[in-house]
Amino acid sequence: MPGLPKLEIDTDRGANTCFGCGQENPLGLKLTFRLEGETTRSEYIPEKRFEGWPGILHGGIVSLILDEAVSHAASLAGRNTVTAKLAVKFLKPTPVGQPLVISAIITRNTRRLVEAIARINLKDGTLTAEASALMYVVSPNTTQREAAHV
Fold it and tell me: In a structure prediction context, what are the per-residue pLDDT tens digits for the chain, which is 150 residues long?
């Protein structure tokens, strides 16, 4: 596809400080994802510190969770990506302090692009938010990696 940027980033996940999934980030969400068939899943109980209006998860955090889900769907499929476009639909308020079920699935996977959808549901199945994403496939920055190991 013409016009797509060629992106190279350091894809070393050893730092483990991502705000969404980094287990070593003291301020982050510490999300963990697993693959079930073709669906990427996670469960998460959002803390009150992430609310916008009282009792409601901040929309930016909702968007972050959906972005993490599509990113992990790509990653679990063996693709390193960065999000180019994320379209979020807020369907119902997402509560804090209640278990959320997060899921994502890849809908298109090409040499340079990955498309995916993600959803946040309550345990009873109520859909609170969903997103569609377009992600660019990136190459590891071998120069940075090689320099770090010298």
Answer: 456 666 666 666 566 889 899 899 999 999 999 999 999 999 999 999 999 999 999 999 999 999 999 999 999 999 999 999 999 999 999 999 999 999 999 999 999 999 999 999 999 999 999 999 999 999 765 443 333 332
pTM as predicted: 0.86
| Domain count within the chain | 1
* CATH code for the domain of 96: 3.10.129.10
Q: Is residue 9 part of a domain?
A: no
Residue 4 counted as domain residue: no
Identify any residues that bridge with 43 across adjacent strands, giving them in sequence order.
101
Pairing of strands 113-122, 100-109: antiparallel
